[in-house]
Amino acid sequence: MTGPDRPGHSSFDLDAATRDRLWRQVTAALERYCVDVGTLAVAPRCDPTAVRSALAALSPDAPIAPDEAVRMVIDGLRAEQLHASHPGYFGLFVPAPAAIGIVAEALAAGFNPQLASWGHAPFPVEVEQWVVREVSRRLGFPPDAVEGTVTTGGSEANLTALLVALHEAVPQIATDGLAGLSRWPTLYVSTEAHHSWRKAARVAGLGDRAVRIVPSDAASRLDVRALRRMIANDRRRGLQPFLVVGTAGTTACGAVDPLVELRALASSSDLWLHADAAWGGAAALSGKHRHLVEGLSDVDSLTLDAHKWLSVPMGAGLFLSRRVGGSRAVFATDPTYLPASSPTGIVTEPYQESLQWSRRFSGLKIFLLLLTSGWAGIAETIDSCFARGARLRDALGPRGWRIVNRSRLPVVCFRDRAARRAAPGHHAAIVEHVNRRETSWISRALLGDSREAIRACVSNRRTTDTDVGVLLDELDEGRRLAREHDA
Ligand SMILES: *Cc1c(COP(=O)(O)O)cnc(C)c1O
Fold first, then answer.
1. 31, 269, 410, 474: least CB-packed within 10 angstroms?
2. 456, 442 in Cβ contact below 8 A?
3. pTM over 0.90, yes/no
4. Mean pLDDT, range 324-332, rounded to an integer
5. Which pLDDT tens digit goes with each residue over 159-184?
6. What is the CA(251)–ligand 1 centre distance, in A?
7. How far apart are CA 250 and CA 478, in angstroms?
C-alpha cells in the first residue's frame, strides 16, 4: 500500500503496512534488548565527536524512511549509552524496566489521554488515584485520608512537598508571594540529602540559604540534636522554620534518617515532616525489610520514586500527603475554558492539585505493575536486591576491603583496607579499572569524612550471585593493579 490510508492524509499517520512493520521492528528490538543486554558492554566507550558528526549528517530538510530512522535510533541506543539494565550495573538507582511498564508506556503514548482534568480522562485519573490509595495503604498511610499525585520523578515530588508545606506555614504566599515576609522561611535537610532540595528552594524563590544543612552522625544519619538546636537558633534569629526533611535511603550511602525521632521533633516544633524516600521507601513495600524505614508511615508527606526500585520505565514518582487539601492550596486556579469539576465534587482534578497541567498517563505503568506482580512480586524483587547486596557486603571483608557505610539497604561503600592515605586516586583507579572492563559498572562516593569510597548498589533484580562474583574479581584485580602503580 502506498500513501497514507485512513484516517489521515498526513505523513504523521503513515500507512497501515508501514505501521505494521514499525510496530514489529520496535517490539523485536525491545525483546532482543531484554534478552541480550547482559552481553553488551555495560558502559560502552563513546566518542562524542563521532556521535555528533553522525547526527550532523541528518537534516529535517531531507526526511528519511521511518524504518531507517527507527533502526538508527535502536543502533544508537544499543551502542551509545550506559546500560543500566545490564545485571552488572551496580550504579545509581536505575533498574531494568519491568516488561509490563514498557507495555504501559506504549499504551499511554498510543491512547494519549489528557489527564489534566477528570472530565477528559475519567478512567486514567481514577487509575492514578487507585495507585495513590493502594501505595498509601501498603505504606501504612490512611488510604482514605491521603492525597497524592503521580509526578515525573522524585524532584517534582520534593518540589511539591516544599511548596505545599510552605503554603501551609505561610498562606499569604499564594497571593502576595515572598514580598513583605517579615520572617524568611527555612527548611532542614541533612548533609547527605539529595540536591533536588536545593533546586526546589531556588524554584520556590527561597534560595540556597533557606536550605539549612544539618550535620550527620557517624552513620551518615541526620543528627536530631543538632537539628533541634538549629531550629531554636533560627527562630531566635527571626527566621521561620517550616519543613524538616528526613531521607530514607540517601543517594551516596543508603543512610536512613531517624524518622521516629524526627516525627517527635517536628510535631513538638509545629513543623511539616517530609520523608524523601525516593529510592529507599521501596523497602517499606517488602514485609521483610520495612522495619529498616521505621516511621515512614507517620510523616506528613513523602516522595517515592516508582522509576527507581519499583523498576517502571523512567518518568514516574509519587507525592503522597496526609494533609488533605494542601495541594489545592498551592495549585488550584479557575480557568474558564475548562469544564467545572464534577457537580458532586468528589473527583480529583489533577490540574488543580499538581504542578503539571497537560498530564501524561504515567501512573499506568505503576498500576499495571501493581496489578500483575502484586505486592508479593514486588516484595520478591526488592528482597532479591537485598540478598545480592548482603552477599556483596559479606564477601568484601574477607577479601581485604573495609565497609565504610552502615546502611542495611543494598548499597555498599568500601575502601581498600591496606590503602595508604598517601595514595590519592587509589580508589578512583580501581573504579576506572572495573568500569573499563565493561562487565560491571560501579561509582564512587564521598562520605561524611570527605574520604573517597567505592560505591556499589544493587537495584537491578537481574543481578545474580554470579554477577556479584564477577564484580568482586574485577575489584581485586583493579586493586592489585592500583597497588602496583602506587608502589
Ligand atoms: C533520585 C532521588 C531524588 C530525585 O529523584 P528524580 O526522580 O531523579 O527526580 C531525590 N531524592 C532522593 C533521595 C533520590 O534518591
1. 31
2. yes
3. yes
4. 95
5. 999 999 999 999 999 999 999 899 99
6. 8
7. 27
Amino acid at 156: E
Q: How sure is the predictor about 7, in pLDDT bands with cuts at 50, 70 and 90?
A: low
Cβ atoms 100, 340 nearer than 8 A:
no
How far is it, in rounded angstroms, from Cα 82 to Cα 55?
Answer: 19
**Would you say how long the chain is, in residues?**
487
Cα distances (angstroms) measured from residue 425 to each of 32, 133, 261, 402? 39, 48, 39, 17
Mean pLDDT over residues 244-249, rounded? 98
pLDDT digits (tens, 9 = 90+) for 63-81: 999 999 999 999 999 999 9
Task: Flag whether pLDDT at 421 surpasses 90.
Answer: no
Indicate which residue's Cα is closest to atom 8 of ligand 1. 154
SS3 content of the chain, % helix, strand, coil (to 5): 45, 15, 40
CB within 6 Å of ligand 1 — which residues?
93, 153-155, 158, 194, 196, 247, 251, 276, 278-279, 305, 317
For residue 378, which of 389, 367, 388 has the smallest C-alpha distance? 367
Give the pLDDT of residue 2.
47
Return d(Cα 300, Cα 336) in angstroms, integer: 33
Q: Which amino acid is at 118?
A: W
Place of cell 489545592: 328
